[in-house]
Automatic annotation (TrEMBL):
Alphabetical UniProt keywords: Signal
Organism: Emticicia aquatica
Keyword Flavoprotein: no
Record-linked InterPro entries: DUF4440, NTF2-like_dom_sf
Domain DUF4440: 30-134
Protein name (record): DUF4440 domain-containing protein
Keyword Disulfide bond carried by entry: no
Signal sequence interval, chain numbering: 1-20
């Protein structure tokens, strides 16, 4: 009986510890996601380069690019992410992987024209050593009434 209680206590301690870490990771990744939108608006490619995995993919309405191409687009202002108004976010963390869904209104300059578009953006992050790196970012055009299921 004492052995069963010890095993149960150990299981509960491990579960609480794992939940606390997962919660901390979720906070960290959500903050990175929020910061990313500001870095994109500021064209801060140095911060973005640190965040984006070298092999990351970026899916836009007009194409798919890899990290170097996305950074060049941001740096040159070919697409200027002027402002991303985040209306709703959800996150799932599983081990060293985190997926973030943001429902946003994006105001951007695209080839000299201002565009205001509603998106749900899916971001995939992976914990690599101590840092979280973005592996993928996909824009999905949605209605402004779209809701993210949590």
């Amino acid at each position: 009986m004492k052995t069963n209680i010890k095993i149960l206590a150990l299981f509960l301690i491990c579960s609480i510890s794992a939940f606390a870490q997962s919660s901390k990771d979720a906070e960290t990744v959500l903050q990175l996601s929020k910061d990313k939108w500001q870095w994109m608006a500021d064209k801060n490619v140095d911060k973005l380069k640190d965040l984006f995995d070298a092999k990351a993919k970026f899916v836009h309405m007009s194409g798919t690019w890899k990290t170097d191409e996305e950074l060049e687009i941001i740096k040159t202002g070919s697409i200027w992410y002027k402002e991303a108004k985040v209306h709703d976010s959800a996150i799932e963390v599983s081990g060293k992987t985190a997926i973030v869904w943001n429902r946003i209104t994006l105001i951007a300059m695209v080839r000299g024209n201002e565009a205001k578009t509603e998106f749900t953006v899916t971001e995939v992050y992976q914990k690599q050593k101590k840092d979280w790196k973005m592996l993928a970012l996909t824009f999905s055009s949605v209605r402004d009434t779209h809701q993210i299921k949590k």
